[in-house]
Amino acid sequence: MKPRHFLSIRFFQLIGCISLTVLNSPLSHANEDPGGSSSTVIPGMKILAGVTVGSNSYNQGYGSKIAWGAQAGLRFAPTMEAGVFYRTAQLSSEDSVDVDVTYMMAEGIYRINSGKGAWIAGLHAGQAEVETSLDLGLLSLSGEKVKKFAFGPKLGYQYPISRSIEFGAIADYTVILTEEQLRSFGFLATVAYSF
Q: What does the CA dihedral 190, 110, 78, 107 come to, rounded to 10 degrees?
């Protein structure tokens, strides 16, 4: 069984490899000219990488917990964006059951430009890993660890503060197809760097 920090490191390595591959591909440099200006094959294309932090609220009596993660994506048109994200949250219930939830998702986003910023609406789907354990104070007993399909919609707003950095606010809803039909509402702030 690989620890959670190992999965986090592997995810960040994956984001880095994808970013470097796209940056060094012909798609990123196809139209460079000797004068130093360049344009991509797809006008307006941007590579995005960033972090998220906020709160995830769950059903089944788990309440709201801090959630954090990372994201990477490609804005290949002014109104279209696709990417992946990683998010994790640790839950606990009144009966001393602890639950760790880790999401690894793909997402598609449609952007509605409004002034300098943009409203966003999208869908995400992928894998949610749910691990349960029993906390008995000095003793913690590990329970089952399952990987389930998860999906849901999201809404939000993105606002650039410079040519390369933008802040965002996201609200999303996720259904995890466990026997208990675990559901979460996420309210998160995002910071993304584009290049």
A: 60
Q: pTM for this structure?
A: 0.72
Question: What burial letters (b/e) apply to 109-122, b meaning 16+ CB within 10 Å?
Answer: bebeeeeebbebeb
CA distance 168 to 157: 5
User: Higher pLDDT residue, 36 or 47?
Assistant: 47
Q: Which CATH number fits domain 4-26+46-194: 2.40.160.20, 3.30.565.10, 3.40.640.10, 1.10.10.10?
A: 2.40.160.20
β-bridge partners, 39 = none
What gap in Å lies between CA 41 and CA 192, rounded to an integer? 23
pLDDT tens column, 84-111: 999 998 876 656 667 788 999 999 999 9
Going from N- to C-terminal start, the domains of the chain cover: 4-26+46-194
Tokens encoding 11? 């995810």
